[in-house]
Amino acid sequence: MNIPNKLTLLRVCLTPVFLLLLTLSFPYHTLWALAVFCLAALTDLLDGHIARKRNLVTNFGKFLDPLADKALTTAALIAFLAMGRIDIWAVMLVLIREFMVMSIRLIAAKNGVVVAADIFGKAKTVAQFASIIVMLCAIEFASWQQTLLAGAAVPDAVYDTVLLVAQILIWISVVMTVLSGFRYVWLNRHFIADGIQ
User: Fold this and answer.
1) pLDDT grade for 48, boundaries at 50, 70 and 90
2) Where residue 114 sits, what CATH number does that domain have?
3) Cα–chain center distance at 157
4) Which sign does the torsion angle of CA 19, 20, 21, 23 carry?
C-alpha cells in the first residue's frame, strides 16, 4: 500500500477518535477534537498532493479518499446535530447528496469505472472542512461562557454571534454540497440509466 492510501486510511481511523473526543465531556475536549480534525483534514491535503506528484494515483485511492472525507464530515455534522448546534435539515441535505453520489460511484464501479472527485467536489470538501473547523472553534469559545472569568468579561451576545456565524458557514457549505451533488449526478447520469436497465 502506497503512502497516499495510508494517509487516507489514517483519516478513516482518526474519524472515530475525533467523534469520541467531541462527544465526551472533559476539560478542553473540543480543542482536542479540533486538533484531531485538523490532522485528519491535513491528510486529505497531503494524500492527493503526494499521489499526483509521485504518480501514485490508484483506483483504490480514488474510491477511498472521498469515502474518508464523507465519514469525517458526516461524523462532525451528526455530532453538531446531537449537540443542538446545527439544524437537522443541514445534515439531511448533506446525507442525501452523499448517498446519491455514492450510489452512482457503486454503479460505475460495477461497470469497471472509478469516478474520482472533481474540482467542485474538492471545493465542497474544503468548504465543509473550513465550516466545521469554525464551528468547533465557536463551540469551544461558547464553553468559556460557563467560566466565571470569561463570563464576566464577555457579553452573552458575543457568544451567540460567534455561534450564528459558524452556523451560517455550515449552511454555505451545505449549499455548495447540494450544488456539487446536482452537478455530479448530471454529469454521470448515464450510469443511472445503465443501472435502471
Assistant:
1) confident
2) 1.20.120
3) 28
4) positive
- Residue 172 lies in domain: 3-196
Q: Looking up cell 468548504, which residue turns up? A: 127
What is residue 188's DSSP assignment? T
Per the structure, how many domains does the chain have? 1
Sign of the alpha-carbon torsion through 59, 42, 121, 72? positive
- Identify the three-state secondary structure at position 84: coil
If you ran DSSP here, which 8-state letter would residue 147 be given? S
Does 192 score more than 80 pLDDT? Answer: no
Give the pLDDT band (50/70/90) at residue 195: low
User: What contacts 24+ positions apart, CB below 8 Å, involve 106-109?
Assistant: 107/191, 107/192, 107/194, 107/195, 108/188, 108/191, 109/63
Residues whose CB is less than 8 angstroms from the CB of residue 73 and which lie 6 or more positions away in sequence, other chains included:
94, 125, 128, 129, 132
* Helix, coil or strand: residue 122: helix
Mean pLDDT for the stretch of residues 25-44: 94
